[in-house]
Structure formats: C-alpha cells, structure tokens
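[INFO] parsing input record for Manganese catalase family protein
[DEBUG] input buffer:
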Amino acid sequence: MFYHDNELQYEVEVEEPDPYYAKMMQQAIGGIEGEMRVALQYMFQAFGTPKSMGKYRDLLMETATEELGHIEMIATAITKNLQGAPEDVKEEVADGNPLIRTMMQGGQPRQALSAGMHGLATDANGVPFNGSYVVASGNLAADMYANIAAEATGRQLACRLYEMTDDEGMKDMWAYLIARDTMHQNQWHAALEELGDTLPVPASFPQEKENQNVNYQFMSTFRDQREDPEERWTQDTSIDGKGEFSFGYQPGGGSGLVEEAIEEMHNHASGSGGDKSIDDQ
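[DEBUG] output buffer:
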C-alpha cells in the first residue's frame, strides 16, 4: 500500500530552462541506469522475499518507495526545463515560438508531441522503458549484487548529468541524488555482509557436484598458449576461500555440428531437400 502527498522528496529548482537538458534527463527516468529501473527492481525483489527475511523486505520496499520519489523529482525537473527556451535561442528567433524551435532542433520531440511538454517513461532517445532491465531473481544475495551494480551505473549517470549543466538548481538536485546513490550502494553491501557466506551464488547448491577441475580456474581463450600472468584471479586462495585459483585453457572436445536438420524446418539450401550443407556445395 502506498500513500502520497504533493510535497517532493527534495526541492527541485531550475534557474534557466533548457529543453536540451530535459532530453538528457530522460535517461535518468526510463533508461537502463534510471530511477524506474531501481524502483521496480527493489519492489519486485521485495515481493519475492519471504516472511522469515522480513527486515530485508522492509529494506527493499523502503528504498523502492524512495526511488519512486526520485522519479517524481526528475519528472518535475524535466517539466521545469521545458518551460522555456535558452536565452540564445530566444534572441535568434524573430518570429514563432522559440521553445518549439528548440524542440525541433535538438530536443526530445515526444516530450512535446506525446506528453505536452512533460516527462516520459522513456530514455534519452525516446525508447520506452523496458521491464527486462529489472532483476528480481528470488535469490537475495544475487539481487543484492545486482542492486550494487544498478546503483553504481545510476550514480555514474547522475554524475555525468551533474557535469552537463551550469544551472545551480539542477546541480543541487543531482548533488542530493548522487548522495542517495552513495548510501544505497553502501546499504546493499551492508546487507550482503550481514547475509554472511553468499559466494558462490547460489550458495545452496552443493559444490561437490561442480566439475572440480575448472571451478576455480581462469581459462585463457588466446589461440596461442601463454604463460600464467600471475594475477590475483589466476593464483592464490579464491575470494570465497573455498578453492585455489589457477590458470589454464578450454578443455575442448566434441563438435558443435549437427548430423542433419529436421526436414520440416526447411533448413536446406538446395531445392532437393537433400542433406548437403552450404559448405559442401
């Protein structure tokens, strides 16, 4: 259950509207690094967290709800940036609407055509948000690793958007959101630390069923054999402490070629329907 009021999570001010910047900010809503992704990711992870791990469900739901507030903040920032054209464009346009001219020249047209000068559930290229961005595996450790990655790429995007503007109001908003990304990265690490021995994920699978010859071996795929580079991932104790890293090559064996294709699939290149491959002709 959710409750809502009209107060933003953090105040959003725009000193100089910029439709070009509004287009860029769409990435922070509907892009793979954006707020829709993390809000839905944490929410669906929470839906799959059992009662026995209730504190982690609360952690996920509280953060998901916070991320919904971030969507609202950025959507507000987009709307405010679409309220007017940059001053240099206003000076250049002798007649007509300078804001529309700006949108035609380099803004996101759908912000005008489909949303009436407001934000959209799309990325900066106008591509709709894709639900496949959401990672909710049902394994809490796997999800926490995914969350760390999501917050890392989200923070990187926010930092880039911070650098792209000289508007002090926008910089203030991004400074807040970047700080929250810092906290979220740390809280997911803290949850992993509290979960204890989670490697390899899933830790519940009996490792004795793995191929013991390759489960801690770095495989070189160079055509020509080379010496062990003696890196951290090719020698010494593995990160999970359950094995020893080693260096080797792909074992090889067998063939990827099928003997014949199913006739009903019509995979033959020739009209005879014979079993000749393209290579044989």
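[INFO] Residues 207-253 form one domain.
[INFO] shutting down worker
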